[in-house]
Amino acid sequence: MTIENDDEKISYLSKFLQDQELTSKCKKICPWDETEKDLGKFWSFLKNAKIDNNFLQLPDGTYFLGDKKQGSILYIRKCYLHLADIIFNEKIDHCRITGNPGIGKTFFSYYLLYLLQKQNKTIVYHKACQHPILFNKQYTFRSNKLFDFKEYLDNTNVWYIVDGQPPLEEFDKMIGTSIRFMPIWSWNEINECRIGMFNHLEIAKVEDLYSRWGGIPRFVLENALYSSQQNHLEEAISKCNARLLDFVGEIDHTDDISHRIVHIHTNLPDEEEEKEDEESHYIKKFILFASEWVAEKVMDKFERNYNQLLRNFVTASLFENEYITLQGVIFEQIAHRILQKGGSFYTRSLESDFTSTIEIPERIKLLFNDINKIEEDKYCQPIQKNFSSIDAIVAPHTLFQMTTSRNHPINVNCMKNLVEKLGGKLGTNHIYFYFVLPKDLYDKYQAQPFYTNNQTVAKKIPCWITNRVKQYALKIDSW
What we know:
Elements: H1 6-25, E1 27-29, H2 37-45, E2 50-52, E3 55-57, E4 73-75, H3 78-87, E5 94-98, H4 105-118, E6 123-127, E7 133-135, E8 140-142, H5 150-153, E9 159-163, H6 168-172, E10 177-181, H7 187-197, H8 203-213, H9 217-222, H10 227-239, H11 244-247, H12 256-261, E11 262-266, E12 285-289, H13 292-305, H14 307-316, H15 324-341, E13 343-349, E14 355-360, E15 365-368, E16 379-382, E17 392-394, E18 398-402, E19 410-411, H16 412-418, E20 431-438, H17 439-442, E21 450-451, H18 463-468, E22 469-476
Parallel strand pairs: 5-10, 6-9, 15-16, 18-20, 19-21, 20-22
Antiparallel strand pairs: 1-8, 2-3, 3-4, 6-7, 7-8, 11-12, 13-14, 13-22, 17-18
């Protein structure tokens, strides 16, 4: 190789000396290195990985980080694409991706390695409880000390990927740090991954686990057949107590019980918004029970042992923003039970302010994860919160939205998705949209606007919505 330019000579010499110094401090790993050949092989062959139908497949005999336990295939979630675009945005210097354990954050880091390798980037990769690794264009280095990579970490062109390594609080304090929330898995993601990677699992088995665990593939797919792992959910429910009200809203609480019982959700883009403003997505967090099954189990226990505490919590902290999400979770479960059993309820039109009493009959409860499974005249609840403007539907005429917040816009995209279960676009029936409220909110509640998933006012509202949807407040004053 001939280098004629002086600047290029200096740069080449500096890089050569840096590599020589690094080799003296760290273990240099090559694909043919017998002691850690699998790690070197992974990095050398990563660029040859193939993407097919949302799956990234490494070459035969190659494993992520050279670890057979990590496998050689990963499912590329749609949020991986969005979050990668956000991370590669030049406006963002530091980004932390957080969320529930077991949803694929580590595999997202492998996907980032793949993208960066294709760009010939140098990366320092540091996984919790493991020695840091430096990946550059040609070689891989492993060291006992992160400090050995200091010169690389000081280089703004080098990427530093950390997986589960504390202290998170110090990282968050860095100027320019952006925090994004990785969502739990939807049923469609779970099933697509089942077909591609876990096709030995029967769909009925996976559906049952999903209805219990919610969108956590670690337990719904990876550990589906291990009873010792499946027992963790029942154990978490049996151990939960009033402390749940203290730590349920903590994003990074290390208590496994809380993460199994409640899940972190975030604001997702819909198909129309994916290309519009991705920087505003994945930044909000709200806490919900892992599933309707878990919610029922926990509420049974709380109503038996902590009923007065529940009352005090839902009412005493009303309007205090830091508690609104937790309030809503508890109040929603209470309201579901009351509405399903039926009875007399005070209602107020949010258009005319006319008040009346309505009789709601007791109905059979039906849980669904597919809109097509909704049945008329049953109290239908979504298994997961994919329907961001409704908590229950009695097709074809009634929608319920429980809230402890003064503002709860109606999601127009959710309404569009439900149209066929509400009489269709050409239907003539009224659609009663009830905001189910604690008594302290009932008298003051106002009609709500229609928003997109992006929390902006919808510019186009279908005529069938404006003509047929009637908003009401419905009071829950005792339980």
